[in-house]
Write a structure and sequence with these properties.
The chain contains 10 helices and 14 strands. With 365 residues, the protein is of the alpha+beta class.
Length: 365
């Protein structure tokens, strides 16, 4: 028997939050898959996902990793939410990403990597901030070392180890520009047969966020994914998204990257609409951002909407970085939107797949 922590996204607006509850299950397989775990239910009226008079919603296991908090064979079970009739719940953005891939994007083998920034708060102020006033101006805190400039390293390091213990596609961390602000990265690592596909990587970002909240909880600290956690002359927090397809990774892939940038520019407003709450406070044209009303691309330009890394430009193939998504954006929505735009997938085709989907036998990656 094993503990299974069922994790899902709730119906909070404008930004969905993580929920979880635990059950004891029989896990006969040495490495159980999502389909090995039972479907469960929860009170949707308490999570903004149902009315009290008809409150049952279903948790359909989708992605399973080892539980890094409980010793032994125990698991974190990331779930999709369905209504009691077995239909995809409107809050289920993972299903939309699955539909985008099924509508044709998966044929182009898209990969993603997410650079998730966050801010640690205690007593209603970021770690390292004085009780009154503000710390010295930003500059010495980015990738810093030392008790007078790096605040929250114990949490960031413990989070890193927990993510590795859970076998997530975790590949790095660093202190960010504002004191109390950090970043971790999830995505392609080039190790063995790891899956850097959109669905798997987005699953791992949500699981890494849950693990971060749990680690911080043990330290009496809260985690903010707000796009502008502190007003004024301070960097906001983003979730820069690295994206590639088989065509951009191939020799002479720069042509495919240029085409992708052209398509992204033509749908700038559509992307901005789903790239996170409070995004205008972050995308001001300052603090390493492009204005929310402007779209431009550039090589090694961290003030552009789309950055082409210098090594990619020099090699002539690889990936691009979309610097617009905010820290509180939903990686399922971001991945689905970029894939639909770059891979030229019609929204009607995505909607048709979503409408036709009854209760799936498995929604696993």
């Amino acid at each position: 028997m094993s503990f299974a922590e069922y994790i899902w996204l709730d119906g909070s607006k404008p930004t969905r939050q993580l929920r979880s509850k635990t059950r004891f299950v029989r896990a006969d397989n040495a490495s159980p898959k999502a389909i090995d775990f039972p479907i469960w239910s929860f009170d949707g009226s308490s999570t903004g996902q149902a009315e009290g008079s008809d409150s049952d919603c279903l948790l359909v296991p989708a992605c399973v990793v080892r539980d890094p908090f409980r010793e032994g064979n125990n698991y974190l079970v990331l779930c999709e939410v369905y209504d009691a009739a077995g239909k995809v719940h409107e809050s289920n953005t993972r299903a939309s990403l699955r539909a985008t891939l099924k509508a044709g994007a998966e044929r182009q083998r898209p990969w993603a990597g997410f650079e998730q920034e966050y801010t640690l708060f205690q007593d209603e102020r970021p770690l390292g901030w004085p009780v009154s006033g503000e710390p010295d101006a930003q500059g010495p805190y980015y990738c810093s070392v030392g008790a007078d400039v790096a605040f929250g390293r114990a949490i960031a390091e413990e989070h890193a180890q927990k993510c590795l213990d859970a076998d997530l596609l975790y590949y790095g961390l660093n202190a960010e520009v504002m004191p109390g602000q950090w970043e971790f990265q999830i995505g392609f690592r080039g190790i063995g047969n790891e899956d850097p596909g959109l669905l798997n990587v987005a699953d791992h970002v949500w699981l890494a966020r849950w693990i971060l909240h749990r680690v911080a909880e043990d330290h009496g600290v809260s985690v903010s994914f707000a796009n502008k956690p502190v007003k004024g002359d301070w960097n906001g927090a983003g979730m820069h998204t690295n994206f590639s397809t088989e065509a951009t990774r191939a020799q002479e892939g720069m042509k495919a990257i240029e085409k992708a940038v052209e398509r992204l520019g033509s749908k700038h407003a559509e992307h901005i609409a789903i790239y996170g709450d409070g995004l205008a406070e972050r995308l001001t044209g300052q603090h390493e951002t492009c204005s929310i009303n402007e779209f431009r691309a550039g090589t090694a330009d961290r003030g552009a909407s789309i950055r082409i890394p210098l090594p990619v430009q020099e090699k002539g193939h690889g990936y691009f970085e979309d610097r617009r998504p905010g820290a509180n954006a939903d990686p399922y929505e971001v991945a689905a939107k970029i894939a639909a735009t770059v891979c030229d997938i019609e929204q009607a085709a995505i909607e048709a797949i979503l409408q036709s989907g009854n209760h799936p036998e498995s929604v696993a990656a």
